[in-house]
Amino acid sequence: xxxxxxxxxxxxxxxxxxxxxxxxxxxxxxxxxxxxxxxxxxxxxxxxxxxxxxxxxxxxxxxxxxxxxxxxxxxxxxxxxxxxxxxxxxxxxxxxxxxxxxxxxxxxxxxxxxxxxxxxxxxxxxxxxxxxxxxxxxxxxxxxxxxxxxxxxxxxxxxxxxxxxxxxxxxxxxxxxxxxxxxxxxxxxxxxxxxxxxxxxxxxxxxxxxxxxxxxxxxxxxxxxxx
Length: 227
What we know:
alpha/beta, about 50% helix, two-stranded antiparallel ribbon, 11 helices, Glutaredoxin, five-stranded mixed β-sheet
């Protein structure tokens, strides 16, 4: 199964085995409301400049975007945290695609607000081969305008499942990034972006590889801008 099929299967299982009908309806309504805010259109878009950043890896080593760009384009993927089954599936799929991404001269980083001590444990199983960065307090995600505050009814559902964002993220803002992937050229311009208010939807790594190949073609500028 490709990533989209895996995510659909996980969603069906959650609705069937984990969430009550009322909980499923609440989550669906919350996703629809988040889409209505226009967050997908308000975020940084193709042609915008990705701000430089320095973020720590989950091993506390600093990583700067400009240093990564010195060797080629950078794929930046934002995820909610290892507690999210959809994020885990995405991280695993990205990790498997890493050789193809690296072969095209690109670097992949995945970023979340989750505290490193938690992310490290999950990384051993889901993403042992690529850079996981910690965006403390969603500071970078805020700059990109891809954050939202989880409403109280959704917090209650997550709490029933043992998901405590205050403990997991180390702050009480209850803010998260929506799923988002940016492909950044060496001049820091965003050449491709995927931003989706629906936490069950992610960009398939196959599409990332396709875009990177496209950017290497003679017509890369026009093709990337049209994406």
